[in-house]
UniProtKB/TrEMBL annotation:
<feature type="domain" description="RNA polymerase sigma-70">
    <location>
        <begin position="77"/>
        <end position="90"/>
    </location>
</feature>
<dbReference type="Pfam" id="PF04545">
    <property type="entry name" value="Sigma70_r4"/>
</dbReference>
<dbReference type="InterPro" id="IPR014284">
    <property type="entry name" value="RNA_pol_sigma-70_dom"/>
</dbReference>
<keyword id="KW-0346">Stress response</keyword>
<dbReference type="InterPro" id="IPR013325">
    <property type="entry name" value="RNA_pol_sigma_r2"/>
</dbReference>
<dbReference type="InterPro" id="IPR012759">
    <property type="entry name" value="RNA_pol_sigma_RpoH_proteobac"/>
</dbReference>
<dbReference type="Pfam" id="PF04542">
    <property type="entry name" value="Sigma70_r2"/>
</dbReference>
<protein>
    <recommendedName>
        <fullName>RNA polymerase sigma factor RpoH</fullName>
    </recommendedName>
</protein>
<dbReference type="GO" id="GO:0016987">
    <property type="term" value="F:sigma factor activity"/>
</dbReference>
<comment type="similarity">
    <text>Belongs to the sigma-70 factor family.</text>
</comment>
<dbReference type="GO" id="GO:0003677">
    <property type="term" value="F:DNA binding"/>
</dbReference>
<keyword id="KW-0963">Cytoplasm</keyword>
<dbReference type="InterPro" id="IPR013324">
    <property type="entry name" value="RNA_pol_sigma_r3/r4-like"/>
</dbReference>
<keyword id="KW-0238">DNA-binding</keyword>
<dbReference type="InterPro" id="IPR050813">
    <property type="entry name" value="Sigma-70_Factor"/>
</dbReference>
<keyword id="KW-0804">Transcription</keyword>
<keyword id="KW-0805">Transcription regulation</keyword>
Length: 290
């Protein structure tokens, strides 16, 4: 399998040709997917792997669309990177664990696209800590209802994401550049990108898979938390899973321990969670709520 094979079209009609190709690939039932995944995993059947990949290219396009227009990157470049993530997911997927490929592939597709976006934006000047990465990919979502981001709002967002208000304003300035609009026509007099993507939106089966993916994601988080002590669970829920994280000082007062002790317990708990998720090729940051 190669990305070139999956995204073969060049020039101004690349997107049109690609979306037409994607729509021609059949979706797989759970039974078909399981059989193909077993054939690839146990017999290295490349034809089976190809069918798995092509059946989920719609999913790649759907996820890539979430990043389109925000970072000044061409849609097909996002699709290309997402396809790399999808192929990695197929290579590592274990059908006997009870998850659909959609659930597993989501983490790989997003991770591949996000790594590409971060590289494109050269975030060395801003930083690449987990908190700054989280801010980068959630700032647009967080300010959807705001006409303008002022210093006070920047401070509030900074507290939520664990960075300074100044870092929020700097990130906002970088993200406020001209967008590669979804309404740009492919060619003069041609169909608009937004309309083409709308026509190729996930069908009912794809929406059901996305719903299943979310359900299994929550199930996996619940299972991971069960490996933590009651105190560690409380800290993770308050510090990582809460929309407005509780400070170390406040948690220390609640539990009757020092701020430093809370930090140590949090570090230990996150280490356990990362080990649990990474065993399945998933990412703690991708699974936890933003």
């Amino acid at each position: 399998m190669s990305v070139t094979m999956l995204v073969p079209y060049k020039g101004e009609n690349q997107l049109a040709g690609y979306m037409q190709q994607v729509d021609s690939y059949p979706m797989l039932s759970a039974e078909e997917e399981f059989e193909l995944a077993v054939r690839y995993r146990e017999q290295n059947d490349l034809e089976a792997a190809h069918k798995l990949v092509t059946s989920y290219l719609r999913y790649v396009a759907s996820i890539a669309k979430e990043y389109q227009g925000y970072y000044g990157i061409k849609f097909m470049d996002l699709v290309q990177e997402g396809s790399v993530g999808l192929m990695q997911a197929v290579k590592r997927f274990d059908p006997h664990k009870g998850f659909r490929l959609a659930t597993y592939a989501m983490w790989w597709i997003k991770a591949s696209i996000q790594e590409f976006v971060l590289h494109h934006w050269s975030l060395v000047k801003i930083g690449t800590t987990a908190a700054q990465r989280k801010l980068f990919f959630n700032l647009r979502k967080s300010k959807d209802t705001l006409e303008r981001l002022d210093a006070t709002q920047a401070e509030e967002m900074g507290q939520r994401f664990g960075v300074s208000g100044e870092a929020v304003l700097e990130m906002d300035a970088r993200l406020s550049g001209p967008d590669d609009s979804l309404n740009r026509c492919l060619v003069e007099g041609g169909e608009e990108i937004q309309n083409m993507l709308a026509d190729s939106a996930p069908n009912q089966e794809m929406r059901l898979l996305a719903s299943e993916s979310e359900r299994l994601q929550q199930q996996m988080i619940k299972q991971a938390l069960s490996f933590l002590s009651e105190r560690e669970q409380m800290i993770v829920r308050a510090r990582i899973m809460c929309a407005e994280p509780v400070t170390l000082e406040v948690l220390g007062e609640r539990l009757g321990v020092s701020r430093e002790r809370i930090r140590q317990l949090e570090t230990r708990a996150l280490k356990k969670l990362r080990a649990f998720f990474e065993a399945d090729g998933a990412s703690l940051e991708d699974l936890m709520p933003a």
